[in-house]
Amino acid sequence: MRVLLISYYFPPYNTVGAVRPGKFAKYLLQNGHEVEVLCASDPPFPEGLLLEISQKHIHPVAGWSVNTPIYWLLGARGQASRSGFQAIGVGRPWVRALGWLYKTLFHWPDAEIGWVGAAIARGLELMQDRQFDVIYVSAPPFSALRVGARLSAASGVPWVAEFRDLWTCNHAYDKPRWRLVLEKYWEDRLLKSASALTTVSPPLSDKLARHGLPVWVVRNGYDPDDLNFIEHPNVLADKTELLIVYTGSIYPEHYDIETFCEGLALFSSTARRARVKVVGRNVASLVEAAVRYGVLSLFDVSTTVPRVEALGLQKAADVLLMFLWQGGEEGVYTTKFFEYVGAERPMLAIGKNDNDVGQWIHSSSLGKVVGTPREVAEQLTNWHQQKLTGDLQVAVTTSRSEFARDKQYALLVDNLELLIETTK
Q: What is the chain's alpha carbon radius of gyration, rounded to the nearest angstrom?
């Protein structure tokens, strides 16, 4: 099978959006398929993600960003890539308000729209030189879907749209009603030419069913090979500290950071010791909450680090901190969740136990789901006591293979091959 994989994000750029496409390309090549990758040459993220395929398969394309004027105005491109826009907006609510207004008016559909023209041109060149069986587009950014639709129309090669996150049905969609109406029309038009859709969970698949296309559920997962590249972390808690690790971004409107910080304060008031290591972009709101509850001294916060270092921190942790999505949305399975499974450390999941991810954590014995500050404090106390006595256990689920990427990608390849066969 010969695949043209289109993904704006791709390794070595260190963003979670590059992980899934990078792993899929690796899987295809390891299993005897051909793949060429069309991606961005200079996305606003630092390097640091392991590139696991040969550079000869990668075709980076430059393009202008709609956010360039904002970066120039705030002098913030480097800071945004490392810490995210939350950090830029701390103490400056006008910056956040300006950012929302700017995105509403100029992101059509996103900041990466300036990449589309150059990506189409390069894609047409690739399709003149090579024969492809299928075009596979990983989104967001959703502007990449325009590239796939255009190349499919020009070549007759079927294309598949992958939604790592949903577009207009997204749980975090925050634009005005008039904008939603326009984007739904745009999304519907683009997807009319697609042959199939892919997403990461059954609840999200149900939302995509309105397009009348086959929808394949291909979950995220962890890659056991990542354990071979883990770096020894620079910061470790001593034997009397409970090391709590969080990697990734914080979404304050949907993460119950208040419950965690208040619970941590209750825990520390008993003279027990903990250190919270936080690594990632857009974590400023968690730091602000830590200040409010008087526990900032327990936090060690840093910006984005190379992924192998983040995985090393997860593996070295006593407890992995997880926030369940608040707001009734089902099916939001973050890449971090699967990485945590691979790290084999117990998860402290903050949120409602009836959340589908929370139920998964409970049923697979991956950790504890807690919903109140007192429950947070009690569970941390239990784990801290276990650490002091040497009884803190790793979290190994009996169904661990269900969480591996290769099993999911095998299902995806089966679907792609059947699609190719039926469209010949």
A: 22
